[in-house]
Amino acid sequence: MNNDWFEKAPVHKAYFKFSLPVVCGMMISLIYNMVDTWFIARTGNTNLVAGVALGAPVFILMVALGDMFGLGGASVISRLFGQQKDDEGRKISIFCFYAAIIVGVVVAALMILFRLPILSVLGANQETMAYASSYYTYIVLGAPLIIVSFTPNNQLRTEGFATQSMIGGAIGSVVNIILDPIFIFGFGWGAAGAAIATVIGYVCTDIYYIWILLCRTKKLSVDIREFRLVPSELLQILSIGIPACITNLMQSIGMTMLNRFLLPYGNDRVAAMGIVTKTNLLAAFVIIGFAFGTQPLIGYNYGAGNRDRLKKILRFCYGFECCIAVTISGFMSLAAPYLLRMFIADEHIVSIGTPMLRMQQIGMVFMSIVLVTTVIFQAAGKAWGAFLLSVSRQGAIFAVVIFTVSRWFGYNGVLLSQPVADVLTAFLAVGLFLLSVYKELKE
């Protein structure tokens, strides 16, 4: 791809060039989960819906591990391309691809071995265990195929193949949509059918990405003959990849904590939160896509030392992200009951879920600040800043908040815990940015 998009194109045009395909790709990725939820909800079985909701953190774990090599590798590769070190960037892409497969195999084996204890930790009880176990088992068996897909998904953008990255996800999503009703209702496989359809969708995505890497890209590769481990390169990848992984892992842990705190109030609350979480991702994935889509652009200019252009990119990122977060959260709050009815016709679940969804919107603009700052740290290779933010919003800060606020305000405190954590983490993000990147740019 012509480097003019990285170096010379107007900032707003370059921003949308890189971020819009990622937003579309994020929405397509969301469809993977939303389609499962929609079809499962059509069964009218609250325990089945709750069981699949309890298994959702497992899928997020797969995304987290994929991002460890996808985002970690993309951060290093984009800076190497900015320094015109294309050969080193290609070797990094090869290592990340095969490392993701190896990690996926190890994780699948361990999670199958410890299946029952993990399901208990996730909150499965007598009513939901069978459903949660079915979904969990097949998602875990597909772990290597799911995890590896996020490596080319993220790294293709470093060579300008943002549209191809999106198309790969779209192919898998279409396959998933076709297979879900067949497996869930036609074959009567229920939760297991939803998981199997998802895994097959990722198989199709992987096949497309491998074809792109073999036939279209010039800088990236999957040539196993060049697969090798260089400790210094691995350290660079993991220094950014682990915080990226932890960001998603904390989301999984946060969802598990939230479900555990809701369990005393009934399985219907857990089921409603499962629907709300998927619905809220409509907003969150747009914001995440616009934030993470610019990582190659930020990394390239940081690596090239083009600070004037970098300042313009950062100003545009923060401004646009905050504006779109306010707009989307306003719409989601007003349309909350109608959006929930897209997934489930049970008015009891809708009435419970409506205030849940509205409370989630309170922290959306603060979440956008955290996301943009996290991406900046990842793109610039600033591991400590990325790590601190990754363990805070849905990790350390969220844990402290949910334990504290739930004691003070009970059920409503549980619902308010995430927006409160968003606000506190945003203040942390601003402080870290001023102490590191902002100070560096001024100098």
Commentary on this structure:
This protein has 443 residues and is mostly helical. It has 19 helices and no strands. The chain has helices spanning 4-7, 11-41, 46-82, 86-113, 115-122, 129-141, 143-155, 162-186, 190-215, 231-262, 267-292, 295-304, 307-334, 336-341, 347-361, 364-379, 383-390, 392-435, 437-442. The radius of gyration is 21 Å and the shape is globular. The protein starts with a helix and ends with a helix. The mean pLDDT is 81.
Query: What's the quaternary structure here?
Result: single chain
Euclidean distance between termini CA atoms: 32 Å
- Tertiary shape: globular
Overall average residue pLDDT: 81
Which structural class do you get from the secondary structure elements? mainly alpha
Number of helices: 19
Largest sheet: none
H and E order: HHHHHHHHHHHHHHHHHHH
The count of strands amounts to 0
**Which percent range fits the helix content?**
over 70%
Q: What is the structure about, briefly put?
A:
By secondary structure, the chain is mostly helical. The protein has helices at residues 4-7, 11-41, 46-82, 86-113, 115-122, 129-141, 143-155, 162-186, 190-215, 231-262, 267-292, 295-304, 307-334, 336-341, 347-361, 364-379, 383-390, 392-435, 437-442.
Question: Secondary-structure map with pairings?
Answer:
Elements: H1 4-7, H2 11-41, H3 46-82, H4 86-113, H5 115-122, H6 129-141, H7 143-155, H8 162-186, H9 190-215, H10 231-262, H11 267-292, H12 295-304, H13 307-334, H14 336-341, H15 347-361, H16 364-379, H17 383-390, H18 392-435, H19 437-442
